[in-house]
Amino acid sequence: MDRSPLTRRVAADDWETWRDIRLRSLRDSPDAFGSTLEREAAYDEADWRERMRKGPRVLVVEDGQAVALGGGFPYDETLMVFGMWTAPGHRGRGHARVILDLVVGWARERDLPVALHVNLTNPSARATYEHYGFVATGELEELRPGSDQQIELMRLADASSRSAPMASETDEAPSPRLR
Question: Residue 107: which of 77, 152, 134 has the closest Cα?
């Protein structure tokens, strides 16, 4: 069986695959996201399809199973990266970078700046984003209303200088493999 991961943009017709890995991510890492498992488990097909249409959605698939995801949605003339997650047994393989390359490429096509929020209790994610070129702004807010955890806004320093492919150049990209 081919063990090479495939990274691809997905569309509304892929809603079931997106839903399944998104719910896995919320179950595994509830403090990494502004949403909750309870909230998103209640979505129906129409909800998932609509959400899939609001910006780029990217999956990494290994041996036919989605193992990583991430996406973005336009907000206030900025593409907000969201939902970045890799299954525990697949971390450290560069999936986040490849996902970000496709999401940032989508933003570049539209001349949008790129930003994201990261939980202050997640130094690994923060390091990944800093290595990619995101810079902390010092702007903090609650993870969710009533939460004692905080998230910080990070902005991509210069999306135009990234080596990310344009989304129209490739909707599929091989994930780098550690040797």
Answer: 77
